[in-house]
Amino acid sequence: MFTTVIIDDNRELAQILSTELVRRGHTVHCAHTGQDGLALLARTPADLIFLDLRLPDMDGTEVLEPARSLRPEAEVVIMTAYPHLSSALAAIRGRVVDYLCKPFTFDELKAFLVDKLAKYEMPVAMEIRASLPKTPVGKLSKKELIAEEMAKHEQAASG
If 6 and its partner were Cys, which of 50, 100, 107, 112 is the partner (CB 3.0–4.6 Å)? Predict the structure, then answer.
């Protein structure tokens, strides 16, 4: 199970991102201010953090360093509708794994998640593949069996 923390004042975007991550088997926690995000990180383990740069109470770059101190193992993805060189440099210094510019479409978000979450999800896919029979069963190909088992795993993780 993967735990993701979303710190974004845009509640609608946080909900969309949360829904997609939960569908992919993640446990998701959301905060809508920098202070609430840091408080959440202080009590919640995180593998991945989505951090907005413009929060109502503080700049996301001010959240980045304490977030890194609280959860050094977590990877951070910066989200912003206001990309600037200074924020990109701060993100690089803060060891951010990616910088996602808003607005983005749902399809762009899904493609981003597939790319960025592959390393978290690949071990699950490999475990499922290892448990499959060596030869196709009935009319299903190995690819179909893997897809079927991944769907069962996602369903079990969300249920």
Answer: 50
d(CA 131, CA 25): 19
Please give the residue range of the domain that contains residue 112: 2-117
Residue at 140 is within a domain: no
Q: Please report whether residue 61 resides in a domain.
A: yes
Alpha carbons 36 and 22: distance in angstroms, whole number: 21
pLDDT of residue 153: 63
Contact by Cβ (8 Å): 97, 116 = yes
The HSE-up count of residue 7 (CA atoms within 13 Å, CB side) is 31
Condensed to tens digits (0 to 9), the pLDDT of residues 102-116 reads 888 878 888 888 877
Q: What is the mean predicted confidence (pLDDT) over 27-41?
A: 97
Residue 106 lies in a domain: yes
Residue 49: CATH number of its domain: 3.40.50.2300
Output the pTM of the full model: 0.70
Rg (C-alpha) for the chain, rounded Å, is 18
